[in-house]
Write a structure and sequence with these properties.
163 residues, alpha+beta, 5 strands, elongated
């Protein structure tokens, strides 16, 4: 961002320190020096507030939609594009305030409401879900845990990688 361009206006998406930020406010401090207040837009910094001193401390790069390069998808029935969109949707965390279960449709072979109750109860505690499941043999404790873990992962509060 050249100093002659002036401070980026609110709503501008910038890249600073390899992350994307949306400018909330910016003002000129001295000729050629700007204070930029921004909120995180990319996964690692989403929702975080930050201030950048440009170009003295940070060198923001304005991300312009017109600079986007479209890449054709040659896969049958746009399979690669559809898989990419599905992956992005699955990785996008639900808001913490969302209390309804997101993965109940098509998740279980036979949907039984009693198997969804443990996940709903655990998610009612916004800070730390704690739950003891002590059902009779064959009622689906493994499915209940699977629903709960899936919901935590979908909300960005769990990790799908194995250790």
């Amino acid at each position: 961002m050249p100093a002659s361009d002036g401070p980026p206006p609110p709503g501008t998406v910038i890249e600073v320190r390899d992350e994307e930020w949306m400018v909330r406010n910016s003002k000129q401090l001295r000729p050629g020096e700007f204070l930029i207040e921004a909120v995180g837009a990319s996964d690692l910094v989403r929702g975080q507030r930050a201030r950048f001193l440009a170009p003295t401390m940070d060198e923001p790069r304005i991300l312009r939609p017109e600079d986007t390069r479209l890449v054709p998808d040659g896969s049958p029935h746009f399979r690669r594009s559809r898989l990419f969109v599905e992956a992005v949707l699955r990785k996008t965390p639900l808001p913490q305030r969302e209390r309804r279960l997101a993965l109940t449709d098509g998740f279980l072979l036979d949907r039984m409401d009693y198997q969804l109750r443990p996940a709903a109860k655990a998610l009612a505690n916004p800070l730390r879900p704690r739950l003891l499941i002590g059902d009779v043999v064959g009622l689906g404790k493994t499915l209940e845990i699977g629903v709960l873990l899936g919901e935590l992962i979908r909300r960005g509060r769990g990790d799908a990688s194995s250790s």
